[in-house]
Design brief:
With 372 residues, this protein is of the alpha+beta class. It contains ten helices and 17 strands. The chain has a single domain, classed as ApbE-like domains (T-fold). Helix 3 runs antiparallel to helix 8 and helix 8 runs antiparallel to helix 9. Bound molecules: adenosine monophosphate and magnesium ion. Magnesium ion (MG) binds next to helix 9.
């Protein structure tokens, strides 16, 4: 848990440091832009993670208003996509998992949209991401919780229990009624887990809200789900997004930076095996489960996806993380406007790879962040 927080804080600090590079320096920018100042807001109470919002606004009041509205939106999406808590007057993943096998449950638009988005993409992801995998991921989560609580041995989920749970993960048993906007589970043991996509989907919704505001120059980092609006309004032209070295992330104090991507108007989302894990018998069991084996996926240490849409970046980062490099690469290459960066595991332990198009953004590959 502590390690995870450290990792998240690191991601934030790199962003902040990079964002500050030219903070407050008036370059040859148009007059109105040169008067912009950089502000930031950090909060810890949504999506079980740290959310940082950095923005350039004409005055602090503008930043406070726009960032405050963004935070309120994060709070709303957190409640809608929460699988663990019930909130008064709200149908969310938790109430669906409780009630949707008994009766069709009407849901709000943003929850509906998330489910439709995930279910539309899922068939293209080669059996990797499955939002109906909740019965299986729930067993792994219970093990992780027990380990975090310091409970004694035999932490791994029982193989038979995993197999039994896997029989209740057919996404076709999630029935969406478009007319009534209701959700019904045909299988009473099915549970939804939207953890692979919800944070990125929510970040994208918040981003669109902010792009339409009077502070379109911003950067959101929701626990590694990064979404950049227009570039910084002073100093450098682009936002620098620090990528964590998966191995260094496991040891506090090490230099954790692996690369920096320079972006604007894009999402950068990473899935990794170095946070949300427990160790049993010397083996690290992390939170991304390969439905083919019902075990944590082992082909990569991290996969970073760069594309415009944050929901797509999030669902793809999990999918490509689960796939072997060649198949993940083929999937990414088949999609327009999507780039990826891998740190591989297994036979190619530690090997870093990136798509050709990623090189234009990567500091390691020679990309620079020009002064405004
Ligand atoms: P991410 O960090 O975006 O890669 O998402 C990982 C989260 O997605 C986990 O914490 C689980 O809640 C959930 N998850 C894990 N494996 C899968 C899977 N194969 N399909 C769908 N969701 C998954
Ligand atoms: Mg994801």
């Amino acid at each position: 848990m502590k390690k995870r927080m450290l990792a998240l804080l690191f991601a934030v600090s790199v962003l902040t440091a990079t964002g500050q590079v030219g903070g407050g320096i008036a370059g040859p920018a148009p007059r109105a832009r040169a008067e912009m100042a950089r502000h930031s807001l950090v909060f810890f109470d949504t999506f079980d993670t740290v959310v940082t919002i950095i923005g350039y606004a004409e005055d602090k009041a503008t930043f406070d208003r726009v960032a405050g509205e963004a935070r309120a939106a994060f709070e709303r999406y957190h409640q809608l996509y929460d699988a663990y808590h019930v909130y008064e007057g709200i149908q969310n993943i938790c109430t669906l998992n409780r009630d949707a096998a008994q009766t069709p449950v009407p849901v709000d638009e943003e929850l509906w949209d998330l489910l439709v988005f995930a279910m539309e993409w899922q068939p293209r992801l080669e059996g990797t991401v499955n939002i109906a995998l909740g019965s299986v991921t729930g067993l792994w989560q219970a093990s992780r919780k027990a380990a975090d609580a310091g409970e004694p041995a035999s932490l791994l989920p029982d193989t038979d229990a995993l197999r039994e749970a896997a029989a209740h993960t057919h996404v076709n048993d999630v029935v969406l009624d478009e007319e009534r906007r209701t959700v019904f589970f045909r299988d009473p043991s099915l549970k939804l887990d939207v953890g692979a996509v919800a944070k990125g989907f929510a970040t994208e919704l918040v981003c669109r809200q902010m792009l339409a505001s009077d502070m379109p120059s911003f950067m959101i980092n929701a626990g590694g789900n990064v979404r950049a609006g227009h570039g910084p309004a002073a100093g450098r032209s682009l936002w620098g997004v620090g990528l964590q070295d998966p191995e260094a992330a496991l040891s506090a104090g090490a230099d954790q930076s692996m690369d920096v991507l320079y972006v604007e108007g894009l999402s950068v989302v990473t899935s990794g095996d170095y946070h949300r894990f427990f160790v049993e018998g010397g083996v690290r069991y992390h939170h991304i489960i390969d439905p083919a084996t019902l075990l944590p996926a082992w082909q990569n240490h991290s996969v970073t996806i760069l594309c415009e849409d944050g929901g797509l970046a999030d669902i793809l980062s999990t999918a490509v993380f689960i796939l072997p490099y060649e198949r993940g690469r083929a999937l990414v290459d088949s999609l327009d406007g999507v780039e990826a960066l891998w740190v591989r595991a297994g036979e190619a332990e530690g090997e870093a790879r990136m798509t050709e198009g990623m090189r234009a953004y990567s500091k390691n590959a020679g990309a620079v962040n020009p002064e405004r």
